[in-house]
Design brief:
This protein has helices at residues 16-27, 33-57, 64-68, 100-107; strands at residues 60-62, 74-76, 88-90, 97-99. By secondary structure, the chain is mainly alpha-helical. It is elongated, with a radius of gyration of 18 Å.
Length: 149
């Protein structure tokens, strides 16, 4: 059932050297706007993936194939008396399918757990920030600050 796993892609982590450069440029009063946007967009995409995985573990899996087409299709993960890894997730809209076990392996050991961070007050505003120059500004807002490394 490997058809679907190749369709799953998760946003990468923000490289520490970029965060370091961003904070150094801001501290020097010469904010690198291009770097700010790069880090902000990467962080935004990473956070969206974390929320996607959180929802999937709660039984609501987003179809990655439909998502790439700009559509939101939710697959409800059903309970089973058997091994939950064998449950097949199948999109009724596009036919994408994968077992829960394969889906789980796609994000395992990739530091995509939401932990307790999903209650952040600014998280709901992120999608409204928009694209391009404004996205990176989220990094410097008080409710979304990142600890410098």
């Amino acid at each position: 059932m490997s058809n679907g796993r190749s369709n799953i892609r998760w946003a990468p982590r923000v490289p520490k050297h970029k965060i370091r450069r961003l904070y150094k440029s801001a501290a020097a009063g010469l904010l690198d706007e291009e770097l700010l946007d790069d880090v902000g967009i990467t962080l935004l995409l990473r956070c969206r993936d974390i929320l996607t995985i959180r929802d999937a573990t709660r039984g609501r899996v987003r179809c990655p194939r439909c998502a790439r087409q700009g559509e939101e299709t939710i697959i409800l993960r059903r309970s089973t008396d058997g091994d939950p890894r064998d449950v097949v997730l199948r999109c009724r809209k596009c036919g994408w399918h994968v077992t829960w076990g394969e889906y789980f392996l796609s994000y395992r050991r990739k530091q995509l757990s939401s932990g307790g961070a999903t209650g952040a007050s600014c998280a709901p505003r992120w999608p409204d920030v928009g694209g391009g120059r404004g996205v990176g500004r989220v990094l410097l807002s008080p409710c979304c600050s990142i600890t410098p490394v």
